[in-house]
Design a protein that fits this description.
Elements: E1 12-17, H1 25-29, E2 33-39, H2 48-57, E3 67-72, H3 78-97, H4 110-130
């Protein structure tokens, strides 16, 4: 079950700057890099649960004020970079809207315990063979 989340355009702030990297004269003249800013904490469009997961998952892109910053400079024109930002935002919200399954604690199987102990014995014997022989 996927929930559709719609964010009004009024909540999104756009700016366009010159992209870095190769591109010849085009990169020096055209502001093609798209920068999308969206204040997650102030947005009524998403639930508190999704906001919390979004903050945890997108830590590197969030400001202290709760603003999510997404940039794109993959393409040479502004409009495609703008659409790329929107796709990135959509996938980030999609990942954050999925509630993680609670982990069920399990016990190690008998075979896995025996294999672990066997491996420990093997490693111990390898290390003991590295030692200097005991003088008798």
């Amino acid at each position: 079950m996927s929930v559709v989340i719609r964010i009004p355009d009024a909540e999104l702030r756009w700016s366009f700057v010159r992209a870095s990297g190769p591109g010849g004269q085009n990169v020096n003249k055209v502001a093609s890099k798209a920068v999308l800013r969206w204040n997650v904490l102030a947005s009524p469009s998403v639930t508190a649960e999704v906001k919390e997961r979004l903050r945890a998952q997108q830590r590197g892109r969030m400001t202290n004020e709760g603003e999510l910053i997404i940039t794109s400079q993959r393409f040479r024109d502004q409009e495609r970079n703008r659409m790329d930002c929107l796709e990135k935002l959509g996938s980030a919200i999609g990942r954050a809207s999925v509630r993680p399954k609670p982990r069920k604690p399990t016990r190690p199987t008998r075979g896995s315990r025996e294999a672990r102990l066997q491996d420990k014995r093997r490693r111990a014997s390898i290390k003991s063979r590295r030692r200097r022989p005991a003088e008798e």
